[in-house]
User: Fold this.
Amino acid sequence: MKDLNYQLSKLCRDNRDGSFSTQATRSRILDLVASQLQALGFRRMQPRSLKPKHIDALVAHWQDQGISVGTLKNRLSALRWWAKKVNKPSIIANDNDVYGIGMRTGVAKESKALKLDENKLSRIADRHVRLSIRLQAAFGLRREESIKFSPTYAMQGDHIKLKSTWTKGGRARTVPIRNDEQRQLLGEVKAFAKGGALIPAQLNYVEHLHRYERQLRNAGLKKLHGLRHAYAQQRYFELTGWQAPVAGGPTSKQLTPDQLAPDYDARVIVSHELGHARVEIAVVYLGR
Assistant:
């Protein structure tokens, strides 16, 4: 057992707050947290080492994985417990909104689509990071996919191909190249990456991820998962000819019989292009 895993397990055993179920859930969450912190590059941590940068890195990692709001809240609750037990409660905000975590929901009630702020993007000095963010906006990619993106492998004529080792759940997929703006961006990425990924040669993925997160914070860019929402809604419009419900279009109850099939087909395509195995997940991006 790794040091932090062991010490957090001991912290839980020495502080048996709540029901047996609550204790067991908290212990499992903190064991996961300890392992993920190490995977994110934070080595030789002690329980009292917890800092805001660790909270930010974990939340960003979870959001990038598409973890549900309810699970995010439970994990933050365990982190607050940890911080309180080591007398550092102020390092984690009491309000989940600070971390971009809203109310528990399934079907989207309002659009979370984000238009990329070009002014803030220009404040990012590292071109690797800028190009990764632009790929997220243009193709609906997740953060990790956009960082590990290698144009030599990915560019396949009329589509890009995402390797299973880049994607959530190891699900390889393709995303169509639909317009000249996307082709121009891919040309820039290919010329810049020179056969590699969008990671500086002297850094590994975890090291570059820290740089990526730091540059986004400094530029004031946050909640970039909204770029995937914007991609999903644009694709739905292209495929159906009308706006998604969450963007002001007709709800499922308002669709005509002739619109039902195109609506379903569009949701299947959008779900696939975003890397989701279930068509039902489209309601998070599009509404119902």
Strands lie at 159-162, 173-176. The chain has 13 helices and two strands.
